[in-house]
Amino acid sequence: MKKHNYSAGPCILPQEVFEKSAQAILNFNNSDLSILEISHRSKDFVAVMDEARALVLELLGLEGKGYQALFLAGGASLEFLMVPYNLMKIDGKAAYLDTGTWANNAIKEAKSFGEIVVVASSKEQNYNHIPKGYSIPADASYFHCTSNNTIFGTQMKSFPKTNVPVVCDMSSDIFSRVIDFSKFDLIYAGAQKNMGPAGTTLVVVKEEILAKSGRNIPSMLDYEKHIKAESMYNTPPVFPVYASLLTLQWLKNLGGIAAIEKINNAKADLLYTEIDRNPLFKGASAVEDRSVMNATFLLNDENHAPIFDKMWKEAGISGLPGHRSVGGYRASMYNALPLESVQVLVDVMKKLEEVVSKENVETV
């Protein structure tokens, strides 16, 4: 049976990426060598890295605008450290918006480098919405936000206007919707949502914001050194970068970010319409801040959980349980999840309504 993969990450990738990656593991570029064993300095892989970095800028509309794309290791969590190391001035301050677990973790790391101003937080409401109406200190070295919150199912629909550099963790919605990416000075994202397998991290940085912190930055944490070395300062994560390139090529051939945004909106509309219509379910996050990538929802009566769980598992659905911080269910609808998979989930939700309604009638 075909599995409908709603895993929050590592998550679903396009089928053609799996097929081409599998072939490259056996024989990469007809070299009779596996992608897993080739030298990262070989002409074949250097070409992969160059194309991947260029394609990132092309898809984001940042070509020729002073940005560099890097493929690094360490996950987005390492960027929680690298961002303040590179951007926060000595004895300076940085502004952070606290919208979820990962934003909070970024704040904790940054506190080791200077004063952190949390401009707003939704923590007291269990991060069920995106704070609004906050102000950003004009003397901050940068402003940091998280565009999408996988655990709580919220997403920033707009971004503040400010004269300080804007940094955004886009790990769970990069390449999913049309945004003016030139409004950001630094973007970072773990690959394992919309771009590739776990193991590499994308960083897109505007070069003019670097070399202003006055800090002595360790080499492995210095963006400038990675830029100069073209993401080859040390041995890069070869296979994850290659699979990311394949995913970026798939997205470009699909029509780019504008094309996938239409598909993503259709998926989200289909599921949220059912959540709001079906009397057995309710959404877990504020309606105006609902994530297109991660829909969190609950049963109004937990007594229905055993039958619902049995039904969606029998339908071939995988990865649906919600995070322990929220409970209920979380449908992660990343770029590669087809609309058909969302329809399967909606059909199960409707079937549950029929079953419960029939049971209630028989009880009466």
Q: Can you walk me through this structure?
A:
The protein is α/β, with parallel strands linked by helices. Helix content is 37%, strand content 16%. It contains 9 helices and 14 strands. It has helices at 15-26, 43-60, 75-87, 101-110, 223-228, 238-254, 256-277, 305-314, 339-363, and strands at 4-5, 67-72, 93-98, 115-121, 143-146, 148-149, 154-155, 166-169, 186-190, 201-206, 281-283, 294-299, 317-318, 329-332. The strands form 4 sheets. The chain has a 7-stranded mixed beta sheet with strand order 2-10-9-8-5-3-4. Strands 11-12-14 form a 3-stranded antiparallel beta sheet, covered by helices on one side. Strands 1-13 form a two-stranded parallel sheet. α4 (101-110) links the parallel β3 and β4 (115-121). α8 packs antiparallel against α9 (339-363). The chain starts with a strand and ends with a helix.
Largest sheet: 7 strands, mixed
* SSE pattern: EHHEHEHEEEEEEEHHHEEHEEH
State the distance separating the first and last CA atoms.
Answer: 38 Å
- The main sheet orders its strands as 2-10-9-8-5-3-4
Mean pLDDT: 96
Q: Could you tell me the strand content as a percent range? A: 15-25%
Number of helices: 9
The unreliable regions are: none
Estimated helix fraction: 25-40%
Compute the number of strand runs. 14
Tell the overall outline: globular
Helix/strand structural class: alpha/beta
Radius of gyration: 22 Å
